[in-house]
Amino acid sequence: MSAPAGGRTRDVRTLSQEGTEELVTAVVTAADRAALPVCVAVYDASASLLAFLRMDGAPPLTIGIAQDKAYSSAAFGAPTHQLHELIKDDEPLRLGIVHTPRLVTFGGGYPLVCDGRVVGAVGVSGGHYTQDMAVVEEALKACGYTV
């Protein structure tokens, strides 16, 4: 038997395979321009992995970092560098939340927002976090996202 939906359900928009592939390609293009081998991870609106790519020469440690940046950004709906700003002056939060598995509070993870709703997230790791941010921001602009 089915129940009426009413207020019990909600519509969820999420990134498509086409959108995911376009974003991964844009990240690789931006990383090539910067001569920076990176790992890129793309997550959907529910913080589940859609795609991952490790460029030749990207350090192995960056595999998990890129995934965790995208996960953190999707789960919070905010760029990872903004998470640091939220916690840096709050001693209990700063000391406690960093023990949360998969949480990243430095740059390189960005939510993907369409019509005011988070539809996914991307994370990049391979260089200093400022380099990772520059690569992601170039890729997001190339795909029509606002940074």
Automatic annotation (TrEMBL):
Superkingdom of this protein's organism: Bacteria
SUPFAM superfamilies named in the record: GlcG-like
InterPro entries the UniProt entry points to: GlcG_carb_metab_protein (IPR052517), PduO/GlcC-like (IPR005624), PduO/GlcC-like_sf (IPR038084)
Gene3D superfamilies found in the cross-reference section: Haem-degrading domain
Signal sequence residues: none
Protein name listed in UniProt: Heme-binding protein
